[in-house]
Every structure is written in C-alpha cells, then in structure tokens.
Amino acid sequence: VFTDPILMCGPIVAEYLSVPSVYFLRGFPCGMDYKATRCPEPPSYVPRFFLNHSDSMTFTQRLKNVLVHLLELVYCKPVFAPFEELAYELLQKKVTATDLLSQGAVWLMRYDFVFEFPRPVMPNMVFIGGINCHQKK
C-alpha cells in the first residue's frame, strides 16, 4: 500500500490485508515518524519541528525543546484516538497509532538535510527531497 500515513487509513488497510506499506510524507506531527521507526531522538539534542531551533541550542532552548516534547505526549494522544478506535473495530485487536506506523516497509521522506537539520535515521527511511521545492521569486 503506497500511502501518506497522516490520516492513518493506509496503515490500517495495510495491516488488515497483511501487505507491506510504503509511506510518502513530508513530516509527521508529534515526531511519530521517528517513534515508529525507533530512530534515536533525544529531545535535548534534536530540535522539535515547529520551534525553529538549530541543532546547536542554548540551555534555555534545550529546556523549551524538552517541555514541548513532554506536551506532545499530552496533546497528540486525542488526535490519533479516533484512528485507534477504527483500527480496533476493523482489526479486532488493540493497537496504537505508533504500532500501525511501525509496520511501514519504506518511508519516503520529502525533505532533505539541505533544508532541515541533520538527525539520525533508520535504513528504511529514504530522503527524496526536492520534489515539492520551487525556486523563490
């Protein structure tokens, strides 16, 4: 199943049919793409997506980064709860959104380290940056 996993329907269908899934995405809220692939992402070193910090942060920026990471644990759970309920109804087993995403065979990431900060990635994460990049006028 070739899908953008943001709405979680593709991962649920792939799990239901027991077929591999290929994800095509720009970024995932709450860093779930890195949790699902089990990438190391220490919050004191890897900046959160919307904070606009660089990879060399001051102590206060690191502290803010850790606090935002902790808040994500609270406000991201209700976002994916409806999809977890749908998966439970269809699959007849209790699964989390992270469990569903962790079944991805290949992650085609639509960004590159030219535009982002470097971070550790797993071997099944392929960067195909430049697909949606337009030159500024």
UniProtKB/TrEMBL annotation:
UniProt-recorded Gene Ontology molecular function terms: UDP-glycosyltransferase activity
Keywords: Glycosyltransferase, Membrane, Transferase, Transmembrane, Transmembrane helix
Entries under Pfam families matching the protein: UDPGT
GO cellular component, one term: membrane
Location(s) in or outside the cell: Membrane
Main location (coarse class): membrane
Top-level taxon in the UniProt lineage: Eukaryota
Membrane topology, record value: Single-pass membrane protein
Alphabetized InterPro entries for the sequence: UDP-glycosyltransferase, UDP_glucos_trans
The family this protein is said to belong to: Belongs to the UDP-glycosyltransferase family.
PANTHER family, A to Z: EG:EG0003.4 PROTEIN-RELATED (PTHR48043), UDP GLUCURONOSYLTRANSFERASE FAMILY 1 MEMBER A1 (PTHR48043:SF161)
Full protein name: UDP-glucuronosyltransferase 1-1
Organism: Chaetura pelagica
